[in-house]
Amino acid sequence: MALLALPVMAFADNSDEGSAGEGAPQSSANPFADVAESQYYYDAVLWAVENGITTGMSANSFAPNATCTRGQIVTFLYRAYQ
């Protein structure tokens, strides 16, 4: 089964109270050329970067349509709930 990073980021961003930095991102600085402000996942990606959950695929690429491995998903969730 292929999973994309976007649903995982949205899940982490909308998790219950008490999780790392819940809510909207504090900054509007977007390091990723492939994450447009008009995309529905924009805030979730910025939130995840601000809270150390992801750093993207490179310094300027998030790859929103790339398939996530189980290891990546486990890492996202682990970092979100630390």
Quick recap:
By secondary structure, this protein is mostly helical. The chain has one domain. The protein has helices spanning 5-13, 42-50, 70-80; strands at residues 3-4, 67-68.
Task: State the separation between the terminal residues, measured CA to CA.
Answer: 27 Å
**How many β strands by DSSP?**
2
Average pLDDT over all residues: 80
Number of helices: 3
Helix-strand topology string: EHHEH
List the strand order in the largest sheet. 1-2
Would you write up a description of this structure?
This protein has 82 residues and is mostly helical. It has one domain. The protein is built from three helices and two strands; from the N terminus they run βααβα. A two-stranded antiparallel sheet has the order 1-2. The longest helix is centred in the last third of the chain and has 11 residues. The chain is globular and about 30 Å long. About 6% of the residues have low confidence.
